[in-house]
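Appendix B, Record 12. Input sequence as logged:
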Amino acid sequence: MRTINIIISVVFLSLFICCNSNNCDKKYFNGDIQYFEENSTTTKVVKSKILTLNGNNTGMIAVYDSLLICWSPSYQNHFFKIFNVDTGEEIGTFCNKGRGDNEVISVGCIMQLFKKGNDIMTLLYASNEGKLFLWNISQSIEKGTTVYDAIVPYNNDRIFFEFYQSDDILFAYKPAEYLNANEAATPYYEKRTISTNKLIQDYPIYKTKSVQNNNVNERNSVNFFFIHGMQ
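Logged structural output:
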């Protein structure tokens, strides 16, 4: 009898936790939160190997087929170095620093690599210049110099994690924004045109546009608050 009572208690406790969690989800977030069982995913065993890169490599990396692309603001005259994953040899340096027509003061790391025709591409956003750079990585490697298929004027504050969707569609993440000592705007996603920087649609993550909390007290801690404070 005692065992049965324990089982019933555990079942009711589990149901309470699930219901409480769902209520919290509906209270704060738009849409349904999907949970995935770890044991339901397909796993694949892969073998790794140690590769020595022959050249100055540091910072954030992105890999596509046989290419390993390093991004670092600490490079002296450029932002990216490309290596051959199979041989470890340095292929070249790209995306020059500067104030020239095809140069940038700063640019973020690679968020997405995609194919356009037969070429490997990525989209880079230079906030200081207010421009989007469509970097043709394949042509850059072939010609030994940085090749941009397009450079588009694009002034958009607080744009992060930009994703190229089509010839004229950009999907981007807008992080939380500090409003005052006790309030911050909630993060969201948005879809925009590339050529005209026109907003097509917002995709709010949270039900409210801003939250008030005493923990939102420093500009640098706003996004940390949304990761931990909303849990």
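Residues 1-21, 227-231 have pLDDT under 50 and may be disordered.
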